[in-house]
Design the sequence.
């Protein structure tokens, strides 16, 4: 039993324990709230993964910018005068001062408030005060803002600090099949409307990412109060006989999703008539059928991006797409940034936008559903940091869906469900996606996969 | 000091009635007397809490979003929310928060027919469970009060938060 914390390999051992425990559906509770683990996550996960930064519809004009983060590092995402996207660290190459003063805006140049060094919105140096007198020998080409690697997939912009690693499409892997059905479902694709909800609370980013990877089981208890709406009129999709039975789970190598499907081939997520004619021509017949039968789906792109696409929300509105980022703000602290998206085809349909906004709002910090989650998650964070867990090496449980646990689920292989491993009725009875999420975490956290000199 | 003071929109007696109403109404929120609070709303009431974003200093766009709200609901859904908060498994308010509005700068901005538009500043303190820390939400409310046979009724309210990133796990009705 450890009596003091002087073990330099402690994080590695915790990762190994997590990995070996997953085979029996167990995980060390302490990884949820541990300063050393968190610091390792910043280096091993967030500096090496493709991290979501924004959607191209937020940067339509040259000069549009937004401050976004990779791990805890502040980056400025810009569209330059030639239309190219960039992400620069908000740190002047002279003395490191921050020069971005707002969350969003439009500018052709960024001027550092310290000594006035000025950069174009493509990251190159424009000049500085007294350049001719003070910097006669300066190699101007050398002065360039620190830029993250950038790649986009159907409007989703991802950034990566590490230069080495898989391409974005390799990183997303088979999961692109599901992302297509959401972010490239219609010819116009999705577009961000308005500004995101942002709120910070005391919980770990993994708790949220794991929850969105496929935890329907919590809905019955955490959201019981919201499901029992008395006065609100439920929509036709919520009174489907097969609504709960149709739940299934799927996941790919690192990224996970959960779907609710109807036998009805015309749900189309409850979008207004005409959606069928707008479907993107690149979709396969199977992808079209998945979309046409969907009533609800959600998922997590490892590490910290999640989405939820709901047809209705217990009488509280819909359909809506909510895309969110679990933004780490220190050990045990996370900011939720939650964007609202709609298909471009309906972006000017005010009546649709009203309903869609209400659905999205049910997941705001004031929302009928969301407001109960964080109360629970804050408690998880506090108690997972308990010394008792460390000293006793306590393990939590994610054994649902493992051999012998239930006879209600079945593994199915149907092209309509895509390339992932799929459990029919897995929504309430299978924690396969949580195990997959932590498997992905172990792979990025494991010493073997570390880039040089990062231990 | 400004020399261009506009004429007070209302007489002292009305001003006093407005202040008394806002103080009483706010006390109903603090004490979770939400059924009583509901009785003060008109049937066409809307509660809006717009998202506030930090924008480029040169931007002509208002900081408050015209599209995104933390909450925007009419009387029917507000009533549903009140019912929801009574349930023991509405975890956001079980245990129940201790809420205290400190209200100031109550001003009548506009008076038209039977409606008054009233602004007030507020700091809303909230503590929860047996924790020493607390949430503090700072905001300005704009409330439309309508005269009725039983006194003022609230016909509309917008809560303009002083936060771009909320420092609280959730916002429940009594905090607005």
Sequence:
């Amino acid at each position: 039993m450890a009596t003091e914390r002087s073990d330099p390999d402690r994080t590695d051992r915790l990762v190994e324990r997590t990995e070996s425990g997953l085979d029996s559906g167990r995980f060390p509770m302490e990884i949820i709230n541990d300063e050393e683990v968190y610091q390792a996550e910043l280096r091993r996960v967030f500096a090496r993964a493709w991290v979501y930064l924004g959607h191209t519809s937020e940067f339509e004009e040259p000069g549009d910018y937004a401050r976004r983060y990779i791990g805890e590092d502040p980056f400025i995402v810009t569209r330059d005068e030639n239309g190219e996207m960039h992400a620069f660290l908000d740190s002047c190459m002279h003395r490191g001062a921050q020069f971005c003063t707002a969350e969003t805006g439009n500018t052709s140049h960024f001027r550092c408030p310290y000594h006035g060094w000025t950069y174009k919105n493509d990251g190159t140096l424009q000049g500085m005060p007294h350049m001719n007198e003070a910097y006669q020998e300066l190699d101007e080409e050398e002065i360039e803002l620190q830029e993250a690697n950038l790649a986009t997939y159907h409007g989703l912009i991802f950034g990566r600090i590490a230069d080495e690693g898989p391409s974005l499409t390799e990183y997303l892997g088979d999961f692109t099949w599901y992302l297509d059905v959401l972010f490239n479902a219609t010819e116009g694709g999705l577009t961000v409307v308005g500004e995101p909800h942002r709120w910070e609370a005391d919980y770990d980013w993994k708790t949220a990412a794991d929850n969105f990877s496929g935890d329907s089981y919590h809905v019955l208890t955490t959201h019981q109060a919201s499901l029992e709406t008395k006065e609100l009129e439920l929509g036709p999709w919520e009174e489907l006989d097969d609504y709960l039975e149709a739940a299934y789970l799927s996941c790919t190598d690192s990224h996970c999703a959960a779907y609710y499907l109807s036998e009805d081939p015309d749900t189309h997520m409850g979008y207004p008539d005409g959606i069928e004619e707008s479907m993107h021509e690149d979709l396969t017949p199977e992808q079209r059928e998945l979309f046409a039968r969907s009533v609800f789906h959600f998922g997590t792109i490892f590490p910290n991006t999640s989405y939820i696409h709901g047809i209705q929300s217990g009488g509280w509105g819909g359909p809506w797409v909510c895309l969110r980022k679990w933004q780490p703000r220190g050990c045990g602290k996370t900011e939720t940034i939650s964007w609202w998206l709609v298909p471009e085809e309906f972006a000017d349909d005010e009546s649709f936008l009203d309903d869609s906004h209400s659905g999205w709002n049910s997941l705001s910090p004031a929302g009928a559903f969301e407001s109960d989650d964080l109360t629970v998650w804050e408690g998880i964070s506090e108690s997972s940091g308990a010394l008792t867990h460390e000293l006793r090496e306590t393990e939590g449980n994610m054994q649902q869906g493992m051999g012998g646990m239930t006879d209600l689920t079945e593994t199915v292989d149907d092209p309509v469900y895509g390339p992932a491993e799929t459990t029919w009725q897995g929504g309430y009875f299978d924690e396969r996606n949580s195990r997959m999420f932590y498997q992905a975490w172990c792979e990025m956290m494991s010493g073997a996969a570390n880039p040089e000199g990062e231990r | 000091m400004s020399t261009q003071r506009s004429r007070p929109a209302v007489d002292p007696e009305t001003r006093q009635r407005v202040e008394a109403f806002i103080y009483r109404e706010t006390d109903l929120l603090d004490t979770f007397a939400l059924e009583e609070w509901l009785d003060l709303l008109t049937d066409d009431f809307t509660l809006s809490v717009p998202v506030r974003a930090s924008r480029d200093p040169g931007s002509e766009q208002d900081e408050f979003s015209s599209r995104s709200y933390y909450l925007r609901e009419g009387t029917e859904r507000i009533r549903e929310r009140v019912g929801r908060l009574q349930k023991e498994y509405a975890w956001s308010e079980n245990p129940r928060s201790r809420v205290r509005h400190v209200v100031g700068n109550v001003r009548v901005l506009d008076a038209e027919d039977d409606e008054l538009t009233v602004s007030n500043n507020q700091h809303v303190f909230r503590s929860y469970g047996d924790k020493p820390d607390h949430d503090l939400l700072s905001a300005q409310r704009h409330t439309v009060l309508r005269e009725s046979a039983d006194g003022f009724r609230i016909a509309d309210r917008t809560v303009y938060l002083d936060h771009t990133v909320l420092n609280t796990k959730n916002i429940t009705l009594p905090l607005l």
Observations:
- DSSP finds three helices and six strands in chain B.
